């Protein structure tokens, strides 16, 4: 059964700078983590960090899809996806850095993820990787920001190849 959690939290363009969200994600990450859209907040997990913006503290400053395609290191137990949620947000909030083509990015993930690994996604959708890629939805957390602001949906999907 899918586990459901609900929180009230302020909205910030850098998602993990909000303490309850950071604490939630740190608690849910497992093992070696690939943080593909890392932003400014260092997580208290074993993370490899990537962000296209060169001023962000990261191990790599590549387009997320390019990083996945070129990855030849150890596989990850968790892949964290917190991309810009919309093109307009990229322009207004993230210096015009837009998310890689998302379907291609999702297709590339299983090559870099251990069997039984998880993908944690933040955005407007609850199913991201999907059964077609052999993922099952385990948990949804809804972060409600109040007023007319869209909630942020975090989902955890487990890879069962
Ligand atoms: C929604 S923010 C989240 C950042 C981080 N997870 C946090 O909570 O602070 C999206 C991040 O993705 C980065 N980004 C945008 N396009 C990217 C791309 N194609 N590849 C890698 N990073 C990208 C932005 O620079 C920004 O830091």
TrEMBL record:
This is Adenine-specific DNA methylase. Gene3D superfamilies: Vaccinia Virus protein VP39. InterPro entries: DNA_methylase_N6_adenine_CS (IPR002052), SAM-dependent_MTases_sf (IPR029063). Transmembrane segments: none annotated. One of its GO terms (biological process) is methylation. It comes from the Bacteria. GO terms for molecular function: methyltransferase activity; nucleic acid binding.
């Amino acid at each position: 059964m899918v586990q459901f959690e609900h929180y009230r939290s302020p909205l910030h363009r850098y998602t993990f700078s909000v303490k309850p969200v950071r604490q939630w994600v740190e608690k849910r990450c497992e093992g070696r983590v690939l943080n593909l859209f890392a932003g400014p907040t260092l997580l208290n997990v074993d993370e490899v960090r990537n962000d296209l913006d060169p001023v962000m503290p990261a191990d790599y400053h590549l387009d997320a899809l390019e990083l996945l395609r070129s990855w030849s290191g150890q596989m990850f137990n968790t892949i964290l996806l917190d991309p810009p949620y919309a093109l307009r947000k990229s322009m207004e909030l993230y210096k015009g850095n837009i998310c890689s083509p998302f379907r291609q990015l999702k297709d590339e993930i299983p090559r870099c993820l251990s069997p039984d690994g998880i993908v944690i996604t933040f955005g407007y959708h609850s199913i991201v990787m999907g059964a077609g890629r052999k993922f099952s939805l385990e948990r949804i957390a809804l972060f409600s920001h109040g007023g007319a602001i869209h909630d942020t949906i975090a989902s955890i999907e487990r890879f069962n190849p």
